[in-house]
Structures are given as C-alpha cells and as structure tokens.
C-alpha cells in the first residue's frame, strides 16, 4: 500500500510544484525559521532538496548565517546508512547518490547523530500523527532512532493525508510545517534543543478572567499550549490565586516606577522564554522600546472595544455612555501607542439592550473568553504570525 501511495503522491507533488506551488516554499521556510526549536538548536541536520520537494536551500543559508552547526547526509549505499558531515557553505555540496547534493566526506567534519538537536526529515507524504511515507529505501529509519532532537517534516498542504500506514519500527516526526500551518504531532519534551509546546506568558493586573479562558480552553482540549507563567504589576491581583490553583507560576514585579516595571517584566519574560506574550487585562502601557522590540510580532493585547473607538481603561463605560448599540472587543499587536497596534481580530457584540455599563462589559467579556483562546491557538499553529 505504501508503494502505491508513494507513486501517487510523488506525481501529485511534482504537478503541484511545477504549476506554481513552488511559491509556497517561501511561506514554509518563513514558518520553519520562526520555530522555537530552530532558534534554540545549535546543531541542525538538513538535506538538499531535489525536484518538487519543498526547497531547503534558503533554510541552509539562513542556519549558516546564524552561526549554527549545519550537517547534511552522505548516502552510503554499501552499508545502506547515512553519514553526517558539517558544511560551512552551500557551495561545498556536489552531486552524490541518487543525484542528491551532498557534502564531502571530510572526517574532521563528521557529525554524530547524537549531536543533532533539530533534524529536517524528507518525506513524500505525512499524516497528522507525524507518520510519513519516505522514498522507500529506509536510510532515514535507522538514523532517526539515534537522533534525540526535534524531528520536523516540510510539506505542501496537499502532501498531508488522513492516514499513513505505520509499522512498530517507524519513527514519527514531531511536527510538520506547511504553507498554512504548523502541525504539532506529539507531546514533546519542554526543554532546550528539543521540540516543545508553544509557550505563552500572560500579563494581567486584576481578576484574570481572560487568563482563565485560556486555562479552561486547555483543560477542554481546545487549546494546545503551555502557559509558562503569569506576570502581574499588582500584588493583590486575583489572577495570582487563579494561576496558583491551576499549577501555573505567578510572578509579581515590585517596582517604584514604570521604567522599573518594564525592566522587571523583560527580565522575567527572558526567563520564561515565551513564544507569545498575551496582555489580558494588563493595566499598564509598556514604554520600554527594548521590550517592545524584543517581542515585536509576539506580544498581543485584548481590549474591550472596537478599536480605534474607545481606547483606554474605561472602554465599556465610554461605549455605553455614548449610547452605542454595538460594541465588542479587539485583539491587536502591542506597540508604543495606547491600544493602537495592528489589529488581529475583532468581534462585534450587541449591547443595545444593556441597562448599565456593567451589563455591557459582562456581555463583551463573555465573547472575549471565546475569542482569545481561538486567536492564541492560531498563533500556536502558525496560522497567525507577526
């Protein structure tokens, strides 16, 4: 069955690539280069793409430019194994077995599989469990058993199938990166150099109900992320207790000035290493340019109005007092302005029947609790990027 699927998928992939699908390679490369496991990996095993495969040359060049140790395989037909060798430049590659570009067999540059912290695995097709159809020669099967690092497949959307037949000796990849999503196939270890869950840090100043909407979504299986910690500027914030009750570390940042607060937040975020920072009822405007720059495109805020209308701390009351019939909430990127960052998502909420600003706020908050976990999930899956 695998042979039939392999032939069928190779034909479809080549047709997709030649009909313009190769433009997806840039999107796939961009998603891959944003992976936390790529950023933290010191030694990466890649392969030189051929034909209709997702192009890897841009990834190889990027990894080299970042000073990472980059290895590529040499096919040893006599032993039916792959040997790994470091390269310093993509220009070093020359045609080897099966017409694939390979590095020279320089023993001084030999890399052992155990050194590899991230490996990009070729495949003709993948399913969402991480099982793959390779090229049928088994070279990677034995290699992957020796690699402890994160295993990633690159594929066009059309290469993802419902089910790949698997056998007990097969080694699944941890994730697959396509032009439209990042498929996280397993529950990887949360440690440097290996695949890990998408990490979220939350900033809150009060009761933490938006924070809890994410926690509840995780419990219900609707959100697959790891909340690394809750950070607050308020030692009396109810969000602290809610975090502790759910086994999430909470951190109050003592401060005598806004500058001290931003410095403390930046230091704590550096320790938590989040992929996304979520301001969920955080009642301070971040002023530090360094902090904003460090998390540019990775820091979002949820605000209870349809921005640009009614920025600031009293948005629901302002909308109610203005006799608005419809208000809502906005999720936006954080910049140096007051609730003025690029809008990611908005939802309108009917407040025409509300008798008070408090009732309008409650109606909006109910929808925030649905929308925020959905947007965070899209970041985790790579459907939204900064």
Concise overview:
This protein has 386 residues and is of the alpha/beta class. The chain has helices spanning 2-18, 24-33, 36-40, 57-65, 139-144, 209-219, 238-245, 258-272, 289-294, 315-321, 357-380; strands spanning 43-45, 69-76, 81-87, 94-95, 101-102, 110-111, 118-121, 125-126, 132-133, 150-154, 175-177, 182-184, 199-203, 226-232, 250-252, 276-279, 299-303, 326-333, 343-350. Helix 6 crosses helix 11 and helix 10 packs across helix 11 (357-380).
Task: Provide structural commentary.
The chain is α/β, with parallel strands linked by helices. The protein has two domains: 2-184, NagB/RpiA/CoA transferase-like (Rossmann fold), CATH 3.40.50.10420; 199-380, Formyl transferase, N-terminal domain (Rossmann fold), CATH 3.40.50.170. It contains eleven helices and 19 strands. The protein has helices at residues 2-18, 24-33, 36-40, 57-65, 139-144, 209-219, 238-245, 258-272, 289-294, 315-321, 357-380; strands spanning 43-45, 69-76, 81-87, 94-95, 101-102, 110-111, 118-121, 125-126, 132-133, 150-154, 175-177, 182-184, 199-203, 226-232, 250-252, 276-279, 299-303, 326-333, 343-350. The strands form four sheets. Strands 6-3-2-1-7-10-11-12 form an eight-stranded mixed β-sheet. It has a seven-stranded mixed β-sheet with strand order 15-14-13-16-17-18-19, sandwiched between helices. A two-stranded antiparallel ribbon has the order 4-5. The two termini are 41 Å apart.
């Amino acid at each position: 069955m695998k042979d039939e699927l392999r032939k069928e998928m190779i034909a479809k992939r080549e047709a997709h690539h030649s009909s313009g699908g190769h433009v997806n390679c840039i999107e796939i490369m961009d998603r891959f280069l944003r992976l936390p496991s790529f950023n933290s990996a010191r030694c990466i095993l890649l392969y030189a793409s051929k034909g209709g495969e997702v192009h890897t040359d841009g990834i190889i060049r990027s990894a080299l430019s970042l000073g990472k140790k980059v290895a590529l395989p040499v096919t040893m037909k006599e032993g039916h194994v792959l040997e790994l060798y470091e390269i310093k430049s993509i220009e070093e590659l020359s045609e080897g077995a099966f017409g694939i570009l390979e590095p020279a067999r320089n023993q001084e540059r030999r890399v052992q599989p155990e050194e590899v912290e991230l490996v990009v695995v070729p495949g003709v097709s993948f399913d969402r469990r991480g099982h793959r159809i390779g090229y049928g020669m088994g070279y990677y099967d034995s290699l992957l058993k020796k690699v402890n690092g994160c295993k990633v497949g690159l594929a066009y959307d059309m290469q993802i199938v419902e089910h790949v037949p698997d056998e007990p000796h097969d080694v699944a990849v941890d994730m697959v990166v396509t032009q439209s999503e990042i498929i996280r196939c397993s529950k990887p270890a949360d440690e440097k150099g290996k695949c890990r869950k998408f990490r979220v840090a939350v900033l809150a100043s009060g009761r933490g109900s938006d924070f809890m909407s994410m926690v509840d979504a995780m419990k219900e299986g609707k959100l697959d992320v790891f909340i690394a910690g809750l950070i607050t500027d308020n030692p009396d914030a109810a969000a602290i207790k809610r975090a502790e009750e759910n086994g999430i570390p909470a951190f109050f940042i003592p401060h005598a000035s806004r500058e001290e607060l931003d410095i403390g937040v930046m230091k704590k975020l550096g320790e938590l290493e989040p992929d996304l920072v979520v301001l969920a009822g955080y009642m301070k405007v971040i002023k530090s340019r360094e902090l904003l720059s460090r998390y540019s495109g990775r820091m979002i805020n949820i605000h209870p109005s349809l921005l640009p209308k009614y920025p600031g701390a009293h948005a629901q009351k302002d909308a109610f007092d203005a006799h608005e019939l419809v208000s809502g909430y906005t999720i936006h990127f954080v910049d140096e302005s007051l609730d003025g960052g690029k809008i990611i998502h908005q939802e309108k909420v009917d407040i025409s029947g509300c008798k008070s600003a408090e009732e309008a706020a409650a109606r909006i908050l109910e929808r925030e609790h649905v929308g925020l976990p959905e947007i965070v999930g899209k970041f985790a899956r790579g459907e939204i990027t900064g």
